[in-house]
Write the structure tokens for this entry.
Amino acid sequence: TWAVNNVTYTESGVYTVVVGCVTNILNLTINATVTPAVSIVADANNVVAGTTVTFTATPVNGGMPAYAWFVNGLPAGTNAATFAYMPVDGDEVYVVMTSDLPCVTSATAESNTIDMVVITIIPCPVASEWNGSVSSDWFNTANWTPELLPCETTIVTIPAGTPFSPTIAPAPINAVACAVTIMDLHILDGGSLIGQEFLCVTNPAVVDRAIVNSNFHLLSSPIASTTFGDVFAPMYWNEVWAREYVELTGEWVNHYIADNMVVGMGYSVQMTTPQTATFTGTLIDANVPATLSNVNPGMDINRVGWNLLGNPFPSAIDWDVFSTGDYDAQVAVWDQAGAGNYIYWNGSVGSLTNGIIPAQNGFFVKTTTDGASLTIPLAAQVHSSQAFYKDAVANALELRADGNNYFDATFVHFNENATAAFDSNYDAFKLEGLTTAPQLYSIADYKLSINELPFEGNEVVNLGFTCGVAGTYSVTASGMESFSSSTPILLEDLKLNSLQDLRLNPVYSFNYQVGDNDNRFKLHFKNATGIDKPTLNGITVYSFDRTVVINNTTGLTGEVRIFDLTGRELKDANMSSSTTTRIPLSAAIGTYIVKVTTAQGSVNQKVFIK
């Protein structure tokens, strides 16, 4: 700033000043004071990790400035109007400019700060295999090999036998269709998936089901549309028989290569050699409705009202999650493990463990109402390898018959809400299995696989047994611990006239001939009068109705004498060395004394005759 003749000059420029009358001219150059400034911009922000970003400085009053670049307060670049590097999320970038102008308020100026946003993109694996080592959580990377989440370009494989099977369960805000997208999905035989309603697969999903023997299997499809020819390889078309059960006729009807597999229906398939059924398409991801039929005009309970449905999902389903309706509480599934029989569940007991219907499996439901509606709910999906905790059932006895490399099971459950007649809410009809497999059932109005009845008045249950092959078979009891310890559980063999205490020995072996009376056994749950601790080990004496029964495990023979309470002898008989001796006694109702004498000692026992 210059002042001449009381005139102040502040603007830059060249001035001529004449002083007085002097002819000399004074030329002045005045430069105003300036303030340097600088600003910066980035050519990109909100970038993917690994991206190089260029920053450009724009100076004001810098002259020929010098630059010093800083990242997070640390020097990062010098003496250039541009600066480029690969930032990380949260970096703070600015520049300090030094002006070379002479008249400045400050030689240096600091720019604005740019906060960098950098997105880390997790690599998308080409192929991922579920290992399930930690949990069922699809979104836990530790459950995958490699340890990365599958994404849009990933080929996903779900095998069987992992500690946990995958469940896609996104947070509610993300619980929408296509919350997860992958390129390919292959569920191997025995693999399981829940949450497919949140999954989109770019290419058709593939689900395998191995069929390991030539016995028939009940099969169902987990995809929206397929034919029998699509499911089985062309080279095996002449070796596969596919059939549908028609309730109207009670017959099995053949299907052909071009026929569609209807979603929610089950089919019987049988082949000459083991092979794999391969389902390719879109997974079923919603409830599946079904309409049940009862139009068969016959009287055969093994045909009328039975409807063969199918599990439509890529996992097992829990029958207990189904809503009740106009159909029986029982469900019947063919045992794929080779029992040669159906297995059952009624909501509380049965040989279909906990009512879990396997994936790609058909199941029979029975109704007495034509047109009854049933929904196979998506919510019923479970992983069949997971632990199921259902309440233990009291007073439920399982009897399993084994022989000829097959087995069958029947259940007797005392339930005070049941009746002695057939109860559709509790009982399960017996469907016949293979003719070469043992068939075991209780006999009420019908042959029953599950028989629920009140205890009072039903302490004796008739059991039937049959098989198309002669041989040695066994019946094994389990569940005795569910009864009161004071309740006797005895198996009577009517053919051999023998009685076995199943609490003492739960396995009963016997020989069977084709043509033996089907009504061979009785289960006794009522108190047997006269069972006390014997004075001779191996011999017990008690009565059933009007019969004295002697169980003899000593192999000894002996004499049996029966007296009334006055000491009068009523009967003299022999005890054989066989397991059981039964002596009918025609006497008035009352208490009697039985004396058994052998070479090693004697037993005296009071019994009550009804």
User: Anything to note?
Assistant: The radius of gyration is 44 Å. Confidence is low (pLDDT under 50) at residues 528-534. The helical segments are 228-231.
